[in-house]
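Annual report, structural modelling task.

Input specification for the 5-O-phosphono-beta-D-ribofuranosylamine complex:
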Amino acid sequence: MINIAVFASGTGSNFEAICKHIESGYLKAKIKLVVSDCMYAPVIEKAKQRNIEVFSFHSKDYQTKSEYEKKIKEKCIALEIDYIVLAGYMRMIGEELLTAYPRKIINIHPSLLPSFKGKGAIEQALDYGVKVTGVTIHFIDQNMDEGEIIAQYPLNIEHKSKDEVIQAIHAIEHEFYSKTLKKIWEDGYEKSTN
Ligand code: GRF
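The model returned the following structure:
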């Protein structure tokens, strides 16, 4: 069984989708910890309803990133976390966690990286006028939305409204994140193709 920690700052729809895939038996993993940098993020309530341990923090209560990441690291080690799954975590991961979990921290981003990094990726793609955008799942490194790409899922957005694109991207994320994680954990990363 793979033990995971999910890091999230907001709604937690990806967290919920992963939970559902675990509950149905599709994904053989256990979420042992949810980490959030936003004390009032809806994801926290969703985790508590499922009796999952939550560590939420306010970055301003710490002098450095390394200070709060040390705390997170201690928790992850105590809970024997194998993988950290980022699901809308709005903070860069620092040295402390990157060193403790090399190639074990995975992120999902709503664009075809390396295009449209950072916040508002869907809007950035729409504003640019691309015909195709999509979703990327990747190992993280020290740079924002960079690191080895594991899988990508394209979406043709011609003739789609903004709302339709947002909905379609989220639907892909909710299915494709678990599908990719399953391939990584069950078949090994090398076989993890779309
Ligand atoms: C998702 O679009 C994800 O790709 C991005 O942040 C968003 C999180 O949404 N990294 P949610 O909180 O899972 O609903």
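Residues 129 and 138 are 24 Å apart (CA to CA).
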